[in-house]
Amino acid sequence: MDCLFCKIVEGTIPSKKVYENEDVMAFHDIEPAAPVHVLIIPKKHIATINDVAEEDAILVGRIYAAAREIARELGIAEDGYRLINNCNADGGQVVYHLHVHLLGGQKLGPLLA
Ligand code: 5GP
Ligand code: ZN
């Protein structure tokens, strides 16, 4: 499949991995928008949040559990952080493999600034 993040999961495109378990992986964003900017993805290809099925509920929960672990490991859990999921054109989605942005390491501005 011609999907950038599937290739990162396969290892054919390199990434700076920060977390991995059986069904979730996370790596640093190539163009960080904050001191900490990690992308958390399911290993399984799901294009957008619109394509999440009922049977993916546990998987989506694991993405958020991974976010919590990564924030703790990177030392930003207490100060705080932001999780973002962009969906389709109006949401600003560029890569069509589901991902949650984990942003932190500084006080973030207003959401839509
Ligand atoms: P979206 O706008 O789809 O929510 O976010 C896609 C994100 O993927 C962007 O923040 C962009 O910088 C990041 N990105 C695009 N290509 C690559 C890549 O090859 N490697 C990594 N690590 N991040 C990428
Ligand atoms: Zn994919």
TrEMBL record:
Residues 4-113 form the HIT domain. A motif (Histidine triad motif) lies at residues 97-101. This is Histidine triad nucleotide-binding protein. InterPro entries: Histidine_triad_CS, Histidine_triad_HIT, HIT-like, HIT-like_sf. PANTHER family: HISTIDINE TRIAD HIT PROTEIN. It holds the Pfam family HIT. Coiled coil: none annotated. GO terms for molecular function: catalytic activity. The active site is at 99 (tele-amp-histidine intermediate). It comes from Paenibacillus sabuli.
